[in-house]
Amino acid sequence: MDLWQLLLTLALAGSSDAFSGSESTAAILSRASWSLQSVNPGLKTNSSKEPKFTKCRSPERETFSCHWTDAVHHGSESLGPIQLFYTRRNIQEWTQEWKECPDYVSAGENSCYFNSSFTSVWIPYCIKLTSNGDTVDGKCFSVDEIVQPDPPIALNWTLLNVSLTGIHADIQVRWEAPPNADIQKGWMVLEYELQYKEVNETKWKMMDPILSTSVPVYSLKVDKEYEVRVRSKRRNSGNYGEFSEVLYVTLPQMNQFTCEEDFYFPWLLIIIFGIFGLTVMLFVFLFSKQQRKEN
Fold it and tell me: Where is the signal peptide (predicted)?
């Protein structure tokens, strides 16, 4: 009975207009979520012992996976096997049946993986967890809303310059986009956020998001070691992915007399050339004097 009430509610919610760009996906998902809760009161009071969805994520807009927590057993109470079911809206209306998760293995324990055959970017999905036929948790979303790219890879850095005082240095940090992000064809446009800090600090300094895969970092202290990390998100999307592996940057201490040596080095050249010039002049003078005597 609950299932038929859900389908009827969803059908009424979508009957006023055909699915089109003029109707907000967020509004559809909101109504769908409300419908799920209204026919499954347990969704509002999910106890701590029941599994809950923790995250649904798509790394590249072509596949996605959903994860949930383990069930916690108290005494003799025990839940049955946990199953995930999903339904999605086609061009005209919501599908008339809930289908079970296509792959419980590929994304790890307590998860369901949807490969490209089961993934449609702009079509809303509703999913639910069930145990012994009872719904214990549920949510609705579109794949485009849950995009979180994989971490950037291949971080490296090069030294740009050192200040005249030898106290600060500037570096250039470079990286590569996540391998599975199809940025060459424009399917995903990524922006990146770089963060850095000294190794012994706890607070990261955050730079403004950029679209390129390299950025200069200015005024780092020499003889210090820094940690650098980068993460990415879809442009105009609020969901950052995980951070890259940490890149360690060590700036060796410069000789405090380097600048003085650089400053005096031209004078040494001037002295050498001066002595050479005086020697030549003296030789010319002596040679000319000797010539006059011979004449």
Answer: 1-18
Tokens 């955050």 sit at which residue? Answer: 206
- Give the list of residues 6+ apart from residue 282 with CB closer than 8 angstroms, or none: none
| 103-122 confidence digits (pLDDT tens) | 999 999 999 999 999 999 88
3-state SS assignment for residue 232: strand
**Rounded CA separation 157/53 (Å):** 39
Asked if 194 and 73 touch (Cβ cutoff 8 Å), the reply is no
Strands 225-234 and 247-250: antiparallel
Q: Which residues of 75-90 are buried (b: 16+ CB within 10 A; e: fewer)?
A: eeeebeebbbbbbbbe
Distance CA 247, CA 103 (A): 35
99-100 β-sheet, strand order: 99-100, 82-88, 124-131, 134-142
Take residue 221 and report the two structure tokens written for it: 């202290």
Q: Quick one: tokens of 272? A: 């050498």
Length of the chain: 295
Beta bridge partners of 176: 153
Q: Are strands 64-68 and 214-221 parallel, antiparallel or unpaired?
A: unpaired
Contact residues for 116 (Cβ-Cβ < 8 A; gap 6+): 62, 63
The whole-number average pLDDT for the span 137-155 is 95
- CA end-to-end span of the chain, whole Å? 134
Per-residue pLDDT tens for 203-256? Answer: 999 999 999 999 999 999 998 999 999 999 999 877 899 999 999 999 887 655
